[in-house]
Specification:
- The chain has 476 residues and is an all-alpha fold.
- The chain is globular, with a radius of gyration of 23 Å.
- It has three domains: 1-201, Up-down Bundle (Growth Hormone, Chain: A); 225-429, Growth Hormone, Chain: A, CATH 1.20.1250.20; 435-468, no CATH class.
- The chain has helices at residues 7-14, 17-39, 43-69, 80-96, 105-137, 141-171, 176-192, 194-201, 216-224, 230-260, 267-292, 294-310, 321-357, 362-390, 401-426, 433-447, 457-467.
- Helix 6 (141-171) runs antiparallel to helix 7.
- The protein is built from 17 helices and no strands.
Length: 476
């Protein structure tokens, strides 16, 4: 049965992404320099700590999705892991920032490698079921969109806090070692507390189907079958192209400001304005998502983002500061759609999968999205490093005019290429409020034992359009 989704439930669900949005932002900005400059690891060893973590993610993310889909507990399939997170999130995050003093590079590498694996495992254990929970709380298109909007607003608020406060906390202590440790403890608590509200303020709609015991063959098959879903294949490309564009832009943003614009003092303000643009534009995209669907809303938002990126060609070191900030605000306003829509669309992809397979597999799809995202992110950031090397960039010196010109084109055009590819994919995406309503009516009819030969021509057309599979082969 459906349950009424109240404002307190939206907030309870949304605050879970304080952890998802903020933790990796802090790690992405501070962890590498902590390992090299505070702990004393060699740069190669510090980079290897992160690479090992990515390999571990490649195993744990999809496996956790499968586990959460097949969990049985009095608290449901997903919410059990939020209770476990209350015991482990703070400890795992704080352990990353424990400053060990040792001249043994191998010992340091082993400790921080396992600390990072511990953190990544806890993150996966909590965030994969959390991402899948949206589809289990409601079947309604608009309510799922509201849940996704609350999640993204909380995520961006966390990014804003985690962009400003960690360095302030660290600087409060004369001893950098102590500062990092207290920062880790404080934010470990900050990321932990919301999960009590997530657990108490959310629910899972009853799933009375019998489940077989898990085995390796089922695990492998479940992940290969997601690519039968036509809408998922288009959706995952929209997701990857938008996030790849974002990864490139954010990785090169500091280089662009520091060396091309020559205004490193604007970095924190520009980043804050960009995040502000993302937050303030979210209600508009939620509204449009409910009116015109994912594809058209994605095209609108990413187009705004692309136009703002193209406008950076006109900026230089002599450009007025308000003009630079305006560009950042527009970039954030468009980026908001690229970041939010793929995750807001995930519950509808799960519904399409159910009409293909007859199963509810939100965890499988959540795990697959997380796996693909992390794998591609690692590849993209590696290629950014290769590209910087190829254009002649050398750290902490004045760059040549040729290198600066190449840096500008790399920063602006590389994300634009991915944006255009994402827009092309979005134009082929057929899930809208109308098609989802038709799909859910047909799915409900089949769940109740309805005969295939009683399906309406409209239902058959919509089901085949969004699944890419002939109707007689559905709901197997």
């Amino acid at each position: 049965m459906q349950r009424e989704l109240r404002f307190r439930n939206l907030i309870s669900y949304g605050v879970g992404d304080f952890f998802g949005g903020g933790s990796f932002f802090i790690i992405g900005t501070l962890f590498l320099i902590f390992l090299t400059d505070v702990v004393g690891l060699s740069p190669l060893s510090a980079g290897a700590v992160l690479i090992v973590g990515k390999f571990w993610d490649a195993i744990s993310d999809p496996f956790m999705g499968y586990i959460s889909d097949n969990t049985r507990s009095r608290f449901g399939r997903r919410r059990l892991y939020f209770l476990l997170g209350l015991l482990t999130i703070g400890l795992s995050f704080a352990s990353l920032w424990y400053p060990i003093k040792s001249d043994n590079n191998t010992f340091l590498f082993i400790y921080y490698m396992f600390a990072y694996i511990f953190f990544s495992s806890v993150f996966t254990m909590v965030m994969v079921p959390y991402s899948a929970l949206n589809a289990d709380m409601t079947f309604d298109y608009k309510e799922r969109t509201r849940l996704s909007g609350a999640k993204m607003i909380c995520s961006q608020l966390s990014v804003l806090i985690c962009g400003i406060m960690p360095q302030i906390i660290i600087n409060m202590f004369p001893d950098t070692n102590t500062g990092h440790l207290y920062m880790g403890i404080i934010f470990g608590i900050f990321f932990t507390i919301p999960w009590l509200f997530v657990f108490l303020g959310t629910w899972e709609l009853e799933d009375s189907r019998d489940r077989d015991s898990m085995n390796l063959r089922q695990f492998m098959v479940s992940f290969t079958t997601v690519f039968k879903n036509k809408s998922f294949k288009i959706h995952i490309l929209m997701y990857l192209f938008a996030y790849s564009a974002m990864d490139i832009m954010m990785a090169l943003f500091a280089y662009y400001l520091n060396y091309y614009i020559q205004r490193p003092d604007l970095f924190s303000f520009s980043l804050g304005i960009m995040v502000l643009g993302q937050i303030t534009s979210l209600p508009l995209y939620i509204y449009l998502l409910n009116r015109i669907g994912s594809g058209k809303t994605y095209i609108l938002g990413v187009s705004i983002w692309g136009i703002a990126m193209f406008g950076l060609f006109g900026l230089s070191g002599s450009s007025p500061t308000p003009l630079i900030f305006l560009n950042c605000l527009l970039i954030g306003s468009g980026l908001s759609a690229g970041v939010m829509i793929p995750w807001a669309t995930l519950p509808f992809i799960v519904d399409i999968d159910e009409i293909i397979t007859g199963e509810k597999r939100a965890g499988v799809y959540s795990g697959m999205m997380t796996l693909i995202r992390k794998t591609v992110q690692a590849g993209v950031l590696f290629l950014v490093g290769v590209a910087l090397s190829s254009i002649g960039y050398i750290a902490n010196i004045e760059q040549t005019a040729e290198t600066l010109a190449k840096l500008k084109y790399l920063f602006i055009l590389s994300p634009l290429i991915f944006m255009v590819l994402g827009i092309v994919c979005a134009a082929m995406f057929k899930v809208t409020p109308y098609t989802h309503t038709i799909l859910m009516r047909e799915l409900d009819r089949l769940r109740k034992g309805g005969k295939r030969n009683k399906a309406t021509s409209r239902a058959i057309k919509v089901c085949e359009e969004v699944t890419g599979i002939a109707y007689p082969e559905l709901y197997q």
